[in-house]
Design goal:
The protein is α+β, with helices and mostly antiparallel strands. It has one domain. The protein is built from one helix and seven strands; from the N terminus they run βββαββββ. Strands 1, 2, 3, 4, 5, 6 and 7 form a seven-stranded mixed beta sheet that branches. A hairpin with a 2-residue loop joins strand 6 and strand 7. It starts with a strand and ends in an 8-residue tail after the last strand.
């Protein structure tokens, strides 16, 4: 039986307070979903953006995987996908999605679920 519940952890101290907000993840059945936002400067290269996402998301995502009794299959940035628009503070919003496959939490793409 899998755990269910919400996981909320503040971003890593390496991320400045101006850059990050709470990462809110929900564990339900065999899936992890959530959203967070980062204040990223215009023109930031993808590698630096991915590192910022990793710093904000790794700990809360690890905790969600632990609740499900699995381990992460990839870097935290693989679970996060930018959303259109920005939050009310002008930060880039990200959707977080993962699903259990065997003993792993694997990234899930937005859109239709495979059958």
């Amino acid at each position: 039986m899998r755990a269910s519940g919400a996981v909320g952890v503040l971003a890593s101290p390496a991320i400045t307070r101006e850059m990050a907000m709470d990462v809110r993840l929900e564990v339900k059945d065999d899936e992890v979903t959530g959203e967070f936002a980062l204040a990223l400067p215009p023109g930031m290269v993808a590698a630096k953006r991915d590192k910022a996402v990793d710093e904000a998301l790794t700990e809360p995502l690890y905790e969600a995987a632990r609740k499900l009794g699995v381990v992460l299959s990839s870097d935290a940035n693989d679970y996060a996908h930018p959303l259109n628009g920005r939050d009310d503070q002008g930060r880039t919003r990200f959707q977080v999605r993962g699903r259990v496959q065997g003993d792993l939490l694997v990234p899930m793409r937005a859109g239709k679920r495979r059958r």
